[in-house]
Design goal:
- The chain has 819 residues and is of the alpha+beta class.
- It folds into 4 domains: 45-241 and 254-285, no CATH class; 303-454, no CATH class; 456-572 and 584-614, C8orf32 fold, CATH 3.10.620; 669-818, no CATH class.
- Strands 1-6-10-11-8 form a 5-stranded mixed sheet.
- β13 (506-507), α15 (525-533) and β14 (538-539) form a beta-alpha-beta unit.
- It starts with 13 loop residues before the first helix and ends with a helix.
Length: 819
């Protein structure tokens, strides 16, 4: 034991002697040669082609789950199947060249950046496929933000804004993982795990309605079981051929019968699976609609942060009555331009509520919105488009139409399109960027034809979820009960309330200069109480529409208030080509939801020539002394949106505060580094596991175990660097293999092997100084092994998971042996 200098000899006994004899004098095992291509294992090439085809079909079934989110746009198929092909190509390179995790990750990330522009961000590409700075930025940020955008953008999400990254990246990652598991691991079942991940992802990012759910589930089950069964039999036949010379071959007839039994059992399992799936799926689908991530993720838009447009009604009438707000082209005769639908009353304002008859979603493909709505309504539609150009109108609500199906801004417009949100339940569009002079856009509308009173008598009210109205004056309910008491049909209840306001009400916008009587603006609880309790009702659209809607809501009738614009029906502009909408064209009306018909408009506002009834002449001859009337009760101020204009900073602060310059730059850099950090997480995990393993080897156990841990550290690095280390070989045999692979560390590695044998099989325990000295030699050997390598080769070894996986497999094998 001259090699083991500094280590004490140990007393020989029979057990140690026999153990050493078995370790040193047993026949030398052949060292496992370096692994070659995974495709050179003796199987026919068509087996691997079949694997690729089966994975393409299985993963493609998962990609189809995104169909409804994209509204059937075929480009999501190009992105999804492109990701599948790209991922399988990366997996094939990994299997053929036996690439490590670091190189495979870098290869997948590089292909994602190079080909992702054409497949996932074609709108930002040069000539449709060449990467640009904008497309690369979208791809990098999309690794983090595309998933949220996919859920918060309204359906269909379109192809702009990087939402195609979700099916593309999902398919790329799962295809690469499934291909690697297929061609690098012998198990026939593990490759099905990434397939199921993509299938579930497609469902989670879809809509409440399923796309061919039963058919795709049956196809996934049949193809998955058939392919896994085929791979299991192929692997079994390959192992059967590797029999020992002392073991006779199976009889050919017996093997054929066994194969027939397996095929029959597989066919029976497939048939039973298909039958059970087909029978149970309709029962599951017949229940409540399924929950998807889109139902859980709340879009970052709160309509309560915006002042109800109805609060500005009198401002349009008084201050902008002759100003051209916008010009509309293509508005049919008697059609209307909608600004907003309001379904929530809080005693102060009639406004929008996020829990109302719809929710606002970020618009992805503005050219195709609200196209997945229920089309079973028996009412025909009038399809047309409006070309709108903004003049003096300023606000966040986008003028549109009833049943908007598309909205596209001109390229030279402001950034209104980037902040566009749409509520398909109320046909209301809002842009967080606001509209400004010069903005122009086109609205596609599918307006239901107006039904006559006799046609509506056959329909009942629809069941619509609306938020509760609060702080409603009691007089509203009392008058509603009286007005609708003797109505024979559902629509007659609405018509009687509408007729009451039209006939008994008087009209006034409060424009005293135009000869109108004074009329208080607003539509809060106090104003509606005064309207209904006055001897003569006096007001305009704002008060009458709110009063009628509150009465209908008291009776349990689904109603809402609409604010919008339309020219005087008697004016020559009604139905003209280009119509200049001014402030005096503003109106408010009521919509009521009928079953299978939808929302129907009602106009409670009396005609403008309905003026208050003059007093009796008798009363005129005996005038009463004038009494100063008390001012109207104060109304609660409207909830104004937060001021979006930045606070003014004086020049000195701008010059002395470096964050005003560096803050946005550092923020942009931080956002750009987020995808890099996410991609680096697996590498950081590997590095932490290796650091934890080294610490356990250096400090855990008695001195003999710590010396063995030092030798294991050498073997782990050799494994990570691709050396053909055989765990069954002796230390001296392994040292010879390592010395051949790394000549610069040959002498040190041989010395470490001899010292480890001397420490483990020698007498007594090594001292702490001897253990530290051994580990110093280990560190020197590790440096010698990596000293001749380049920087990237050293990083590949540092982050390679080979040694971790080898130890995990050895631990599982040892556990199975003990059992």
């Amino acid at each position: 034991m001259s090699e083991a200098t500094g280590l004490r000899p140990r007393r020989h006994d029979r057990s140690d002697s026999s153990r050493r004899q078995n370790d040193s004098q047993s026949p030398r095992r052949p060292v496992r040669p370096a692994a070659g291509s995974a495709f050179a294992d003796g199987r026919p090439r068509w087996h691997f082609v079949l694997d690729a085809g089966a994975l393409t079909i299985l993963l493609g079934l998962g990609v189809l789950g995104f169909s409804l989110s994209f509204g059937g746009d075929p480009y999501y198929l190009i992105a999804g199947f492109g990701g599948i092909v790209l991922g399988l190509a990366v997996a094939a390179l990994n299997a053929h060249f036996r690439l490590g995790l670091l190189i495979t990750t870098a290869l997948a990330f590089g292909s994602y950046l190079v080909l992702g522009t054409a497949l996932a961000v074609p709108g930002a590409a040069i000539a449709g496929f060449i990467p640009s700075l904008e497309s690369l930025r979208t791809l990098l940020l999309g690794v983090v933000f595309a998933w949220k955008d996919m859920l918060t953008v309204g359906v269909p999400v379109g192809t702009a804004g990087g939402v195609l990254i979700v099916p593309f990246l999902s398919a790329l990652i799962t295809a690469a993982a499934a291909g690697a598991l297929t061609w690098r691991i012998r198990s026939p079942y593990w490759p099905l795990l990434p397939v199921l991940v993509l299938f579930v992802t497609g469902i989670a990012f879809s809509t409440n309605a399923g796309f061919l759910t039963v058919e795709r589930g049956i196809a996934l089950t049949v193809v998955g079981i058939a392919w896994a069964t085929f791979r299991r039999d192929a692997l079994r036949r390959r192992d059967t051929h590797k029999v020992s010379v002392n073991r006779p071959q199976h009889d050919a007839g017996t093997a054929a019968k066994a194969r027939t039994r397996r095929l029959a059992a597989g066919a029976a399992v497939l048939a039973a699976t298909v039958g059970i799936t087909a029978a149970v799926s309709p029962l599951i689908a017949a229940g409540d609609e399924r929950r998807v991530l889109r139902n859980v993720v709340v879009p970052p838009f709160d309509p309560k942060a915006y002042v109800t447009p109805l609060a500005s009604f009198r401002n349009f009438v008084k201050d902008k009555k002759d100003d051209t707000l916008f010009t509309v082209k293509g508005l049919p005769k008697d059609a209307r331009v909608r600004l907003g639908a309001l379904d929530s009353f809080n005693g102060t304002n009639y406004t929008m509520d996020p829990n109302g008859s719809g929710s606002f979603s970020k618009v992805g493909d503005a050219k195709s919105i609200n196209t997945l709505a229920d089309s079973t309504d028996p009412v025909p539609t009038n399809d047309y488009s409006l070309d709108i150009t903004i003049d003096d109108y300023q606000g966040y609500f986008v003028p549109g139409g009833r049943k908007t199906t598309g909205l596209s801004f001109a390229p030279d417009s402001s950034g209104a399109a980037s902040g566009l949100y749409f509520n398909s339940g109320t046909d209301t569009a809002v842009t967080t960027q606001g509209l400004s002079r010069g903005d122009s856009y086109t609205v596609q509308i599918s307006d239901p034809v107006k039904l006559e009173h006799g046609q509506l008598t056959q329909y009942d009210f629809a069941k619509v979820s609306l938020p509760d109205v609060t702080d409603v004056p009691p007089v509203v309910g009392a008058q509603a009960n009286d007005l609708a008491a003797d109505a024979p049909t559902a629509v007659d209840r609405v018509r009687q309330i509408e007729a009451h306001f039209q006939k008994k009400g008087a009209f006034s916008n409060g424009l005293i200069a135009d000869g109108q009587l004074p009329s208080v603006s607003g539509h809060g609880a106090a104003r509606i109480r005064d309207l209904l309790t006055a001897k003569q009702m006096l007001g305009d659209d704002e008060q009458y529409a709110v009063a009628m809607s509150l009465m209908l809501r008291h009776l349990g009738i689904p109603s809402r208030v609409i604010m919008g614009f339309y020219p005087d029906p008697k004016s020559p502009e009604n139905g003209a080509g280009d119509i200049k909408i001014t402030g005096k064209d503003v109106h408010a009306w009521v919509e009521v939801a009928f079953d299978r018909v939808g929302w129907v408009a009602f106009d409670p506002t009396p005609p403008k020539d309905n003026i208050p009834i003059p007093p009796d002449p008798e009363n005129k001859s005996k005038p009463k002394p004038q009494v100063l009337q008390p001012p109207p009760p104060p109304q609660e101020p409207a909830d104004l949106p937060p001021d979006s204009s930045p606070d003014a900073l004086d020049a000195d602060e701008k010059k002395t505060n470096p964050w005003l310059f560096w803050g946005p730059i550092l923020t942009a850099i931080g956002i750009a580094l987020i995808p890099v950090g996410i991609l680096a997480l697996p590498l950081l995990l590997i590095a932490l596991l290796k650091l934890r393993r080294r610490k356990a080897r250096f400090t855990g156990g008695d001195p003999v175990q710590r010396v063995g841990g030092g030798w294991s550290e050498v073997l782990s690095l050799a494994t990570d660097m691709g050396a053909p280390v055989d765990s069954r070989a002796t230390r001296r045999e392994t040292a010879a293999v390592v010395a051949e692979a790394f000549p610069a560390a040959g002498a040190t590695t041989t010395l470490l092997a001899h010292r480890a044998d001397a420490s483990i099989f020698g007498a007594g325990q090594p001292s702490e100084d001897e253990v530290r000295e051994y580990w110093d030699v280990v560190d020197g050997s590790l440096k010698e092994m990596t000293g001749t390598l380049g920087f990237w080769r050293r990083q590949q070894a540092r982050f390679s998971p080979r040694s971790l996986l080898a130890e995990a497999r050895a631990a599982l094998a040892a556990r199975g042996f003990r059992r």
